[in-house]
Amino acid sequence: MIAQRQVWEYAKHVKVWVGKYKNSHNLIHWHSDCELLYVEHGSIDIFCNGKNHSLSDGEMLYVDSGQVHYMQARDPETVLIVIIFDYEILKPYVGELCLASSKLEGHYPIPDIYAKLRDILLAQEPFFGGEAAGIIISLMSRIYRKEKLQPRKTEDETAKRFIDLLGEISAKIRYYTFTDAVTFMGMSEAYFSRYFHKTAGIPFGSYLSYVRTKEAISLIKSKNDLTMTEIADLCGFGTIRNFNRIFKKITGYAPSALPEKFELDESFVYPSEITFNPTLHDCELIESTGEAQ
User: Fold this and answer.
1) Where do the domains of the chain lie?
2) CATH number corresponding to 4-152+275-288
3) What kind of architecture, by CATH, is found in domain 154-257?
4) What pTM was computed for the model?
5) How far apart are CA 217 and CA 263, in angstroms?
6) Tens of pLDDT along the chain (293 residues)?
């Protein structure tokens, strides 16, 4: 899948946000912020940093800054507590270390901390931003003491390279190839194939076909004077036959028969600095300290 950057815009420059989601289900994305997830009720599958995790009542997961992730509740009644905070709050204290596993093994009073943060952020008394940040530092210090740690640098460099790769593909969609991607990542072909599939949840070829189809849909709907052959060439399909085959496979329609109001199933989105909300329509924000950005 294609990861997009989510940009959080906190209320009143307070770098902490908390909320509860029911039936949490979102697109693959990443953000510079850190995210704590706690299953209050139900069960959920979360893909984070190249690994799949299944969580149920009382279990929790930590998404570090820059990690690609997405999730899908197994039960529509699943309730997920979410605590998001700016990595800069934590950065001075963690140095070059990060958690070895996204899924937390220790037990932490997340529901109590969530309730306390919610009350502080809603009351907005003087210096409430600092008070909320202090609670985050205290909680994360406890987590870092109890969980297994590992060096951050190597993992972060590879993850950043992967995110940069997605931008490369999006910018050079017309000519980009598997070989280009392998060279960009500095990996062998076999290792890159495994790494990309594991990290993105989809083979590289399928990813590229989707990106090209998405771009083709945009061009078709823009009402320009381009022919289908020209669109196929601009989007990197090579031949009109290949374009027709892939386009119909992904959308269910021939390019020339695409409905005017057609919207592509957003299982994939491309890298961007623009704020976007990865939450899908069937996911409900049932409680929060402000509008999720």
Assistant:
1) 4-152+275-288, 154-257
2) 2.60.120.280
3) Orthogonal Bundle (1.10)
4) 0.70
5) 9
6) 444 555 566 776 789 999 999 999 876 777 889 999 999 999 999 988 878 899 999 999 999 998 888 888 999 999 999 999 999 999 999 988 999 999 999 999 999 999 999 999 999 999 999 999 999 999 999 999 999 999 886 656 787 788 889 888 988 999 999 999 999 999 999 999 998 887 777 789 988 998 899 899 999 998 888 999 999 999 999 999 999 999 999 899 999 999 988 877 544 433 333 344 555 557 888 998 875 44
